[in-house]
Amino acid sequence: MPFPAFPLFVVPVRFGAPPLLLAALLVGGCPAQAQQAAPVPRDTSFTVHSAYVKAKKQHPTITVARPPVPRHVRTASNLTYCALAGGRELKLDVFYPRAKRRQTFPAVLIVHGGGWRSGDRAQHVPLAQQLAARGYVAVTAEYRLSTEAPYPAAVQDLKTALRWLRAHACPYAIDTTKVAVWGFSAGGQLATLVGTTNDDPLFEAGTCYRSHNSRVQAIVDADGTLAFIHPESGEGDDRKGPSAATLWFGASKTDRPDLWQQAAPLNHVSAHTPPILFINSGVARMHAGRDDMRRQLDAFGIYSEVQQFPEAPHPFVLFNPWFEPTVAYTVNFLNRVFGR
After folding, report:
1. What is the rounded (10 degree) CA torsion for 168, 171, 174, 176?
2. What is this structure's pTM?
3. Longest dimension (CA), the chain
4. Residues 189, 275, 266, CA angle at the centre, nearest 5°?
């Protein structure tokens, strides 16, 4: 049945200034909602399922990690942590333990992978739930991918999520002096860049929660590259078409090597870098620059740790039998750093 026709009214509206013309389509006596931001283009090439199908060819006994939801873990889903121009809202989810009076918990911001172009924060819900069950407030946050905005937007978004986390410490009982960032693959590179650029104005943007800081006190990098232009790196091979990194930077490493170097966490190590845990698969190029970074950390007397699964495929964090050890390594490291 066709929709009935309704008249278009032009209504003068005053906001302490000359009248504005508001066109509103009245349906059933109610004005239509304000125009929403256009849908963000999505690249769905990297999903848990697609990674599973690929990895299972070489590892036929693996299973997708879907442990039971722990008891007493609470969830606050689909929260807006920043509204961008044009109506775009960045979302996150919070997984947190039930707090006793005056009890606070360390927090972990979890960053998904997918080549800076694909992936989804929901891929790490099982990890977030397990961390919450072990006394951490775990936050899974989206960030703008290269289909929407080039580097450094993703870094700036994650710094904003950290500021949101501190601004909302009270309702989730967060200890704001104990905040970590955890990331896998491209998310590992992002997490490490976020953590090695504390207080760097280049990566702070927007007006959301600017009265709060985005510092982190610990980093966990699961198979994220530490350097783009490096003998161990496989990033930037454009022979068969633009690589994921080239699409993210918006330029090849020969055209804009300055951007590729700027985004390398290896180039930001200082005396103020927090302790780092590296959890790695057997794919060497996925931790390019790790050993060089550890030597720099050692020179500053900063603790670092490596845990490796030599037989594991790159997306090991999503699958059994590596999921539980990954959780254990993460919790043991954070407990050590935070003195728990």
Report:
1. 30
2. 0.88
3. 74
4. 40
